[in-house]
Design goal:
This protein is of the alpha/beta class. It is built from 9 helices and 18 strands. Strand 8 and strand 9 form a beta hairpin. Helix 3 runs parallel beside helix 4.
Length: 340
């Protein structure tokens, strides 16, 4: 697993030298967007991509699509390829689809046609294509089978990614803080190995590959799919059925039904800890009550802080320091906390 950031012109001027000194492994850069007025390059893309190359930070790109048909999507792809003509991204060249976009009115097959026009052109140019969207989008809108052929970057700002399908990247917060960048930063995890989709990598499937079973030690929770994806494994039904048969939880794959009982047993057998504990301790996932104040400043947080999920970093009496991956966000009274 590798840690990455999502960057666009909204971050302004970035001190990439300081970013390089942090624990960030890669950057996903917004290269542009489609609008009713046409195609526009992100105002800081050239600056950011050159900085990534200078400081040897692996990068990928994403384009905010506004296409309503294959012709428009193809034009978006050509626009992106022109921007990348002199660059070699190590990470995927992605199409960003949102439920707010006009495509939300289209049928899933048509959305698949639009995505395919972009991804096939990107693939022909020698880049790894992918789709970035929210969990809701992938679950409700992007259901065409063709989406299984491309890298999937799921946006879900939560303690774990609960998307049931296979995914390769996960954006889990929009409110991190990172040296070299002013304001909030979006953080992601990548489970790509040499930037190849998981379902295309040899040995990812349990059945008939002779590969070791997934190791879920360190996961605490109740979601088998969440544990598998958090550790970089597929989580689709067929994969879980093969695992259940391999560890003799069931006699045959067809005996696996994906029930809560079977999944919890499978989670335990693979090393995960089954727990729904709400005890407040270091590492506990929390949210803040609306309007709660930062003890250090005596002021409320920004609206976005109350929407995100964090972890407890330390507890002292009635005070709790919380943050993301060890990076402190603030300090609050423990009465201001909701354990999730």
């Amino acid at each position: 697993m590798k840690s990455g950031i999502s960057i666009s012109g909204t971050q302004g001027i970035i001190d990439w030298k300081k970013v390089k000194e942090s624990d960030i492994d890669y950057a996903m850069l917004c290269c542009g967007s489609g609008t009713a007025a046409g195609l526009q390059e992100d105002s800081f893309f050239q600056r950011n991509v050159k900085a990534c190359m200078e400081y040897q930070i692996p990068f990928g790109t994403y384009f905010d699509s506004w296409a309503m048909d294959e012709v428009q999507s193809g034009k978006e792809a050509e626009f992106v390829l022109e921007l990348l003509e002199q660059y070699s991204p190590e990470y995927p060249v992605m199409l960003h689809l949102e439920e707010r976009n006009p495509i939300s009115t289209l049928k899933s097959e048509k959305i698949g046609d639009i995505a395919q026009a972009y991804c096939e052109r990107v693939k022909q140019a020698g880049y790894l294509p992918g789709i970035c969207a929210t969990k809701y989008c992938f679950t409700v809108m992007l259901t065409d089978m063709r989406f299984e052929h491309w890298v999937r970057w799921v946006v879900q700002h939560y303690k774990e990614c609960t998307y049931a399908g296979v995914y390769h990247m996960w954006q889990y917060t929009s409110d991190a803080r990172l040296q070299g960048i002013q304001g909030s930063v979006k953080l992601s995890e990548s489970y790509l190995d040499d930037c190849a989709p998981q379902e295309e990598k040899p040995g990812q499937r349990a059945e008939g590959k002779g590969m070791p079973l997934p190791d879920l030690h360190g996961y605490i929770g109740l979601s088998l799919a969440g544990a598998l994806n958090a550790k970089g494994y597929p989580s689709d039904f067929a994969y879980r059925a093969a695992l259940a048969a391999d560890i003799k939880l069931v006699d045959r794959k067809t005996d696996y039904r994906g029930t809560a009982e079977q999944n919890l047993k499978l989670l335990r057998r693979l090393g995960g800890t089954v727990s729904s504990s709400k005890m407040l301790r270091e590492g506990t996932y929390i949210k803040l009550k609306e309007g709660s104040k930062n003890i250090n400043t005596g002021m409320p947080f920004g609206d976005e802080v109350y929407e995100n999920t964090y972890q407890v970093i330390s507890i002292s009496g009635i005070s709790v320091i919380f943050g993301i991956q060890g990076v402190v966000i603030g300090k609050v009274n423990r009465n201001s906390i909701l354990v999730v």
